[in-house]
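Notes taken during the Thursday session

The instructor put the following on the board and asked us to keep it in front of us for the whole hour. The protein is KEOPS complex Cgi121-like subunit. We were told not to look anything up and to reason only from what is written here. First, the residues (169 in total):
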Amino acid sequence: MEHECEIRQGIADIPSIPAFLESVREIAAATGTHIICFDAEKIAGKAHARKAVGHAVRSWREGRAIANSLEMEALLYAGGTRQCRVAMDLGLHEGENRCYVCICPPSPAAAEALERILRPDDGDWEGIDEAKKMRLMKRYAITGEELAAAGGRIRPLVFERIALLEVNR
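Then, after some discussion, the predicted structure tokens were revealed:
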């Protein structure tokens, strides 16, 4: 399992989560990859996904994983939580989803197969508007004082919460 992952962004119209996840699992199995999907509306950008997957891969390699799969381990790190139910909220939902899809290790065959269920989108998704900032503050228990101390930059505070999961295991 390579630490290097390719992160793509795309839009998925999902009528059924179980059916969508089964398709993702089939693609992963057929291509020898791990495929991890994050709801782009609920995380602090592509770097957030990359950090979560990096921590998950490291904990998996070192035998310290909490979850039964790398995919769930990455969701736990992304959420900064040990609770699978809480972490699953960072995954996808029924309806239209803007999502970051991590393919570990990178695989052109997996990327091509995913295009059957995911429309690629090369737009700029990195912005954090006021509504998203408030969602992130609530999800990661970030106070106004912390945000002010960080110069109004929320990403470093979210990344800190991810790193704290390492300490709090």
